[in-house]
Amino acid sequence: MTTESVLSYKNASKSYGAAQALRNVDLDIRRGEIFGFIGPDGAGKTTMMRMALGIINPDGGECRLLGQLNRRRARARAGYVPQLFSLYQNMSVMENINLFGSLYGKAAAEVTERAEFILSRVGLWGFRDRFAGRLSGGMKQKLALAIGLLNTPEILLLDEPTTGVDPVARREFWALLYQFNHEGLTIVVSTPYMDEAELCTRKLFLNRGKILDVGTTAELISRYEYRLLSLETAAKGVGAWLRGRPHIVDENMFGSKYHIVTDDLQGARESIAAAFAEHGAALPPMRDIGAGLEDLFVSFAGRED
Fold first, then answer.
1. What is the span of the domain harbouring residue 83?
2. pLDDT-above-90 percentage for the chain
3. TM spans, by residue (predicted)?
4. Do 229 and 295 contact (CB within 8 A), yes or no?
């Protein structure tokens, strides 16, 4: 992986009326990365994608795609997979490919040759005559991926491409992304799934239009300022019992366990023991654990600024 920047934002801001979607964003994405945009709904992820492609322009600052301020021109060397499946449901897989190939200005023979290669890679060549509307959710996303790769891009942007897709199809989709990345394709993806975020070379946390942190998983976790206790209990209302007690910064449920965020492990243990004693409940085992990306996501998503 080189240090060449293929997508950059310099003090970029964007507002929609009174709502500020991006606030002074600075970011450089390097060639060869799989870069992840992470943040809650409304954080600004789609705005960053649309700005990268030249669909919208910043109100202040700048954004460059493949080194160009004219991102619409640079888009000829970029691919895009939108959040919602937006291909033609009453057209076959191949008819969709031919339509988008013509929009890219490619000759019919060139489209056919590229289509066979890409559809074979994503496992859809045998379904080329099936209506897009009759494909499964995972197959629809593979078709959207094939369309995004039709012009042999240098960078591919994907906006929450696997939302609503079953876990097996998500794994297959990401296996394809890794294959194309290993062949030199730079990938930028927004995702609500932390297991997918783990697969990204680097990632950023975005909330309320502001980048809160950028780095590898190890770098992000190393900057997490709190400690965590894992607490597994069947008792009801534990979150309310602990809320506001000394050294309990936050409490979040992960499956059957609580992750207790604390600024002092021993102080938190004492607060937890006191809460359970007050409610006549047996004190469950407590375990000191390391933070994960989900813990960081919850922490960042809860910040007002």
1. 5-221
2. 70
3. none
4. no
